[in-house]
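Supplementary Text 2. Reproducibility record for the structural model of the 365-residue chain.

All settings were left at their defaults, and a single model was retained for analysis rather than an ensemble. We include the record here because the model underlies the residue-level annotations in Supplementary Table 4.
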Amino acid sequence: MIADEDMKPISPGAPVSCPSAEHVSTGIPIPKPIRVTTFSPAEWESFTQEWASSLKDLYVRVARHTGSGDQGVDVAGFISDRGWEGGWDNYQCKHYDHPLRPSDIWVEVGKIIYYSYKGEYSPPRKYYFIASRDIGTKLGKLIEAPDRLKEEARNNWESSCKNGIIETSSIPLKDDLLRWFEEFDFSIFSTKSVVELIDGHSKTPFHSVRFGGGLPPRPEVLIPPEEHEVVESRYIQQIFNAYGDSLRKAVNSVSELSSSLNSDFLRQRERFYHAESLRNFARDTVPDGTFESLQDEIFHGVIDICDSSHGDGLARMKATVTQAATIATASNPLRSVVKVQDQQGICHQLANEDRLFWVPTSEEA
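Retained model, structure tokens:
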């Protein structure tokens, strides 16, 4: 029996650091490498696909095998337009409840040897094992010693590969396949750590949504060039239509504008460039469709104003842009970086796509 004097009152020690308001609200953040280990197999697969998009800077093309019978290839990075024959790297993804062991990889080693022997593809330049709980010590030492890795792969072929590569066929290691095995370069096998995966993932648009932590700072917005870009042609024509409707005469160039309208025109272009800057920022920091969702939110927030009766096209444009500035975009992942000018500029993006009209024609009304 435990003596009373061996029992001590529970008295938690002082926190290592002063807790912040965020800690009180959400708890102490879970480090990303630990969070990754809690992913379900489906989440790990999604994370892997997201991470693979960070490899596009290294390869001409990156592809993930999605069909049945992966032939030992999960993610392939091709270094030239020649595909499999032009040099490629393989990334084999594993989600287990333990660090990767030698017994976890023998069938994968067997697949890459067998299918390259069969001519399904050339042997990869590099072959990386990436696991949700990293690589165990024993496997790590084997990978660092290619000759030992080859010897262990040979010893385990009968138990792991012979009937494991193809469920319906037995593949003994003999004759030409054995000669291919002996000549195979086992130094291609390597690993990618979870820390490396997270670092690569941080360079994708998916990182902030999956791990939180907020968006990075936005770059400075470009000043609109004096010469109008081709991409601006439609919304600028719509602005000229609005000015012309107010002046009761056609307006076809900036030189025809008064000083006050010229100042207004510059403001509208600056707003458009703000929105374009946000579009580019979103492309690099949040998943596809996030910015388009924001555009739809602005559209639905202003369309009733835009479709209402106004004295002229300029009044309609100003009323619509003013309404856009008041819309709360609380549900969009970009909300922390969205400025009033962005929301106003989105109106001009919508006009550029003929979703909003400042001077509707009989067909557009």
